Amino acid sequence: DVQLVESGGGSVQTGGSLKLSCVASGITLGGYCMGWFRKAPGKEREGVAAVATDGDTTYTDSVKGRFTVSRDNAKNTIVLQMIDLKPEDSGMYYCAAHAGRYCYWTSFGYWGQGTQVTVS
Fold this sequence. Notes:
This protein is mainly β.
């Protein structure tokens, strides 16, 4: 079965940094778009960052220049490096995956349990 397991969340002050990791099992990462979503209380789930099989990345406008997503197919792992964090970045961050060479925000079908990020 497919499992996506996130780690690295925590509480930081405004301007701080966090690195989130997601380890996938049950899939070969090289065939999947991998992404990060977040959900804040009272808000809809939002796509944050995604990385295609060739390493091409996509970010929501609010995190451009501050977040970096990368993949290591050999380790079946993706990382979201977050710097200059703001209170509006707070939420539960979910790792997600969908099959295919390129990324589509509406196509993600596999989801992790999430890791909490709190910025104050």
